[in-house]
C-alpha cells in the first residue's frame, strides 16, 4: 500500500526542521573541530602545514559534491539518500581511525566521510524547501542553528576525547556519533510537493526515436543535475554562484587556522579550542534573529543585499587577527565574527531559493555546491602553503579578508546594476504600465514576471529568440510581437 504524502507547511514539517537542525550540526558543524586535531595530526604524520591542510580541504570539498546527491535524491528520494549518507560518514571516520598515512586519511575520514555528510546535508536542505513554503526563510534560519550547535559542541567534545583517547580514539567515537544522521534521515517522509521535482524537466524522447548515444545520455544527465541552463539564462543565479565561489576561498580559513594561530601565539590548547565554541554559541542566538529579519516582508526583496553586507563585514572582521593575538582580543573577534557569520549562514540557501524555482532547486544546488567544493578544495592547502612560505599566520587572515570583501562588492554591485537595468526597462514602456494598472491584474503580473525573471520558454515567437527555452513560450501567444519585443528590449538593454 503506497505511503500517504505529507502536506507542506503541516505539523510534520516542524519535525523535519528538528531533523535538519541535528543533521546540519553533525555535518556542516563537524569540519570546525579539525583545527583541534591539526597540530596532533601534523606531528603524528610528520607533515607540513600544506599537507595536513589537505585533510579538512578534501572533507569539506566532498561535502559539497552536489550533483551526485541530486541524482540519488531523484532516483531514491531524500529519505534513503540521507540514511545512506549517515552510514558512509560513520564508516569513513571509523576507517580513518586506523589510517597509517595521510593518503589513507584523505580517502577515509576525508573523502568517504565528506561524501556521507554531503548526502545527509543536501537531502535535508532539499526537503526543507519542499516542506516549508510560507515560512521558508525562517525555517532555513532555524535549521542553520544546527551548524551553530555543531560549532559549539564539536570542538569541546574533540578536545575532551583528544586528551583521553588521542585522535584515533576520537575518530572512532565520531563514527558512532555520525550514525545519528540515519535517524534524522528516517524522519524525512515524502512530501506532496515532491512531485514538483518531476515537472518542467527536459522531456524524454518519444519511444520510437533511436536510442541516445552514451555521450548524449551523459550530456542530458549533466544538464539535469548541474543546471548549466540556469547558469546561462538566469543572470542573478550566475552572479550569486560565482560570487559565493570566490567568497568560499576565504570563508573557511578562520575555522581551520584560528586554533593553531592562537596556540602559535602562546594561548593554551583549551582556551584556543574555546574560541571556536564561542563562535558557535553566539550563532545559536544570532542565526534565528537573522532569519526573523530576513523573513520580514520589508526585507524580502533585499535578502541578497543583506547577504552581501554579511560577507563584507565578515571579511573586515578577519583583519582584527592581523593586529593582535591576545586572548581577550580574539574573544572579541569571535563575538563580532559571529554576527556576520550568522548572516551568511542564515541567508545563503534562502537567497538561492529566491533566485531559482523550487522545481529546479536540486539541480541548481548541485551546481552551486560543486562550485563551492572546488573553492573549498584549494582554500586550506593554499593557505597552508602560504604559511609554510612565510611562517606568519597574519597572511592567512589577509587572504581570507581579500576574498570575502572582493566577493561581497562584486555581488552587491552586480545585483544593483541588474536592478537598475530592469527599472530602465519598465520606464521604456510607461503606457503599458499605466494600461495594466488596476483592473487587469493577471496580465500586469505576467509583465512583471517577464521583467523580473525573463522568459523561460522556447518558441519562434519568443522575444528571447528561437529555441532558447525548452518548454515553449507561454507569453508569445498572449501578446503582440511588437509589444514583446519592446518589453524584452527594455530588459536586455
UniProtKB/TrEMBL annotation:
The keyword ATP-binding does not apply. It is a multi-pass membrane protein. The chain crosses the membrane at residues 12-38, 53-73, 80-99, 105-125, 137-157, 169-188, 234-253, 273-293, 305-324, 330-352, 364-383, 395-418. One of its GO terms (cellular component) is basolateral plasma membrane. Its main location: membrane. GO terms for molecular function: monocarboxylic acid transmembrane transporter activity; symporter activity. Residues 13-424 form the Major facilitator superfamily (MFS) profile domain. The keyword Transport applies. It is found in: Cell membrane. Keywords: Cell membrane, Membrane, Symport, Transmembrane, Transmembrane helix, Transport. Pfam families: MFS_1 (PF07690). PANTHER family: MONOCARBOXYLATE TRANSPORTER, MONOCARBOXYLATE TRANSPORTER 6. Belongs to the major facilitator superfamily. Monocarboxylate porter (TC 2.A.1.13) family. This is Solute carrier family 16 member 5. It comes from Propithecus coquereli (Coquerel's sifaka). The gene is SLC16A5.
Amino acid at each position: 500500500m503506497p505511503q500517504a504524502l505529507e502536506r507542506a507547511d503541516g505539523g510534520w514539517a516542524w519535525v523535519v526542521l528538528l531533523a535538519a537542525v541535528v543533521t546540519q550540526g553533525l555535518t556542516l558543524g563537524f569540519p570546525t573541530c579539525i583545527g583541534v586535531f591539526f597540530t596532533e595530526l601534523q606531528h603524528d604524520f610528520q607533515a607540513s602545514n600544506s599537507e595536513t591542510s589537505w585533510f579538512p580541504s578534501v572533507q569539506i570539498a566532498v561535502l559539497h559534491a552536489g550533483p551526485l546527491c541530486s541524482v540519488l535524491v531523484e532516483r531514491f528520494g531524500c529519505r534513503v539518500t540521507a540514511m545512506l549518507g549517515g552510514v558512509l560518514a560513520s564508516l569513513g571516520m571509523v576507517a580513518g581511525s586506523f589510517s597509517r598515512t595521510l593518503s589513507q586519511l584523505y580517502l577515509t575520514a576525508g573523502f568517504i566521510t565528506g561524501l556521507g555528510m554531503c548526502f545527509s546535508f543536501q537531502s535535508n536542505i532539499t526537503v526543507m524547501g519542499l516542506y516549508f513554503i510560507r515560512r521558508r526563510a525562517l525555517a532555513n534560519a532555524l535549521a542553520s542553528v544546527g551548524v551553530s550547535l555543531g560549532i559549539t559542541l564539536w570542538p569541546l567534545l574533540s578536545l575532551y576525547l583528544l586528551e583521553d583517547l588521542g585522535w584515533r580514539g576520537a575518530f572512532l567515537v565520531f563514527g558512532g556519533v555520525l550514525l545519528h544522521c540515519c535517524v534524522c534521515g528516517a524522519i524525512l517522509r515524502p512530501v506532496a510537493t515532491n512531485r514538483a521535482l518531476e515537472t518542467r524537466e527536459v522531456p524524454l524522447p518519444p519511444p520510437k526515436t533511436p536510442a541516445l548515444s552514451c555521450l548524449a545520455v551523459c550530456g542530458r544527465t549533466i544538464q539535469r543535475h548541474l543546471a548549466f541552463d540556469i547558469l546561462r539564462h538566469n543572470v542573478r543565479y550566475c552572479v550569486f554562484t560565482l560570487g559565493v565561489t570566490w567568497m568560499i576561498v576565504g570563508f573557511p580559513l578562520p575555522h581551520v587556522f584560528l586554533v593553531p594561530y592562537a596556540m602559535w601565539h602562546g594561548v593554551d590548547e583549551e582556551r584556543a579550542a574555546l574560541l571556536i565554541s564561542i563562535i558557535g554559541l553566539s550563532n545559536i542566538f544570532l542565526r534565528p534573529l537573522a532569519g526573523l529579519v530576513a523573513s520580514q516582508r520589508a526585507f524580502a526583496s533585499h535578502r541578497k543585499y543583506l547577504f552581501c553586507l554579511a560577507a563584507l563585514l565578515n571579511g573586515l572582521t578577519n583583519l582584527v587577527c592581523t593586529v593582535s593575538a591576545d586572548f581577550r582580543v580574539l574573544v572579541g573577534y569571535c563575538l563580532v565574527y559571529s554576527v556576520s557569520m550568522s548572516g551568511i549562514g542564515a541567508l545563503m540557501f534562502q537567497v538561492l531559493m529566491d533566485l531559482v524555482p523550487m522545481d529546479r532547486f536540486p539541480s541548481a544546488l548541485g551546481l552551486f555546491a560543486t562550485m563551492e567544493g572546488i573553492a573549498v578544495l584549494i582554500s586550506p592547502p593554499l593557505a597552508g602553503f602560504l604559511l609554510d612560505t612565510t611562517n606568519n599566520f597574519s597572511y592567512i587572515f589577509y587572504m581570507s579578508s581579500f576574498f570575502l570583501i572582493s566577493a561581497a562588492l562584486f555581488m552587491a554591485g552586480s545585483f544593483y546594476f541588474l536592478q537598475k537595468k530592469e527599472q530602465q526597462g519598465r520606464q521604456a514602456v510607461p503606457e503599458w504600465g499605466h494600461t495594466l494598472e488596476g483592473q487587469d491584474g493577471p496580465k500586469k503580473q505576467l509583465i512583471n514576471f517577464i521583467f523580473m525573471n525573463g522568459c523561460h520558454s522556447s518558441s519562434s515567437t519568443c522575444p528571447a529568440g528561437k529555441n532558447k527555452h525548452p518548454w515553449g513560450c507561454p507569453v508569445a501567444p498572449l501578446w503582440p510581437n511588437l509589444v514583446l519585443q519592446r518589453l524584452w528590449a527594455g530588459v536586455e538593454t
